[in-house]
Amino acid sequence: MKISFYNPRRLTFLAVVLVVCSALLGSRIEQAFSIDNEYQQLLKFKEVFTLVSQYYVDKVDLNKLNEAAIGGMLKELDPHSVYMPPVSVKQSDEDFRGSFEGIGVAFVLNHDSILVDQVIPGGPSEKVGLIAGDKIVLINGKTTKGFTEDSVKKNLRGPKNTKVIVAIARSGVPDLLNFEITRDVIPLNSVTAHFMIDDKTAYIALTHFIQTSHEEMVRALEDLRSQGMKSLILDLRGNPGGYLEQAVEIADEFIGGTKTIVYTKGRVSSFDEVDISHPGQEYEKLPLVVLVNNGSASASEIFSGAMQDLDRAPVVGITTFGKGLVQRQFSLGEDGSALRLTISRYYTPSGRSIQRPYDGSKYTKGIDNPDGDDEDNFAHAVDDKNPNDTTRPKFKTASGRTILGGGGITPDFIVKPDTVTKSTIEAFASSAFYDYTKDYVSENGASLHKKYSANSYLTDFSISDETLNSIIASAREKIAKAQEKQAEKTVVGREGDRTEKIVEKAHEQKVKLDDKELDADRTLMKDWLRAEIAYQLFGYDERAKILLKSDKQFQKAYALIGEAQKMATVFK
Asked: Would you state the pLDDT for residue 329?
């Protein structure tokens, strides 16, 4: 009897076992090398830290040294992975829950400067003319270079009615702009305005996504529906984002069926998530138009991207910020500090990543880097003059329309905002306009309430030329005094640093209000004064009603209600 040792099935089985074992062994070896490398790097850091603490020529603050090392490490990752000391964690929690006293801006530290991420509607900074994208380079004459998040808040926040002077570098403006800002209580409601534009069309301004945003939106929608709402313009301009789940819940109110709203993907699969809409929501067929601009970021882009990808609503404005990274906050130790770490990227329903290009902690182009390519801020839609554009990837909406990915949400209808002359910006920055409205309402508030209702104020109250001329004269006086103080200060920066050069130049420049430029904006200035007085008398809704009348982006959105009705009708 001849015995054969050849058995194809057995050899195949053995081969599979060997492959699996090799793969597992290779994986474990690779993991072992990875762990060993991590350990070696930690040993190196520990050795440097120990040598510095023992032998450095001066005594050092080890806690400060450690935090600086952590910050330096995170700068190699992306613009949104940051270390948060205990005070910053506490203040960050406040920013999404309650209120505080300060100048009314949200900011991010980027590229050795303070970038204004959002200007809170109705707050002190908006009243004097700060806008999203401004860079704060001086606070009370002191350079902000090297400031931590904690030191920024210490310098900008403070008791109500106290003043702070900030110098701003603005993209497209060659010289610094100086603003005197009076601190105030900053409320943190996310729905800052909701009202009927006509007997059928409603307007909602959503300024950020906090824990109560969905609840606030539902209340506003119910109120507007009781007033006859048949269509809606949702304004997300200047909304820097916030809690992703709030954006998903609000989007779900408008999306029917079971459709992908957003999904996230990261290196660790346990962080991957898919958010799906739920059928049977009350506003699934409500005609909707969405307003965005280059200050709309993160959760705002999740919402507007879903509306665009699913052909649910037309998007109007200019290209959004382009933040497509998702962070998770990890507690560190017992001191209350935390690590906010990017763990994944999010993608719109069509598969778009809208993240703007970056290199480490610096964006390589966009609104926060004037030296970069700023063209994306006013990018054209793919069907607008350049259908063969190959600089950004193309995707398809649910109905087959071509849309752009990479670098923000490019609206379906590009509408650039109105421009304001440099002299008008300087006049507003002096705080003369805000001071006038505050004093005027303080002295005449009771009589104004007797004379006007909210509706009659909108049609009957006006600002005379004499009043405007007096305010401009006051602005000139304030600017002259500010320049006298500024001339006494000096700033020495390192060679080649653009921000420091601008700061140095600011001490030499002489601001002069040009009469021709001011005359070109007289209607705008009168509207602003009427709007600010309306805000102090009746609230933010009346302020918004005045400003929207001359808002080109809003007017385009209003003209697209018919298009929104068509999209709502065919949406499935």
From this structure: 87
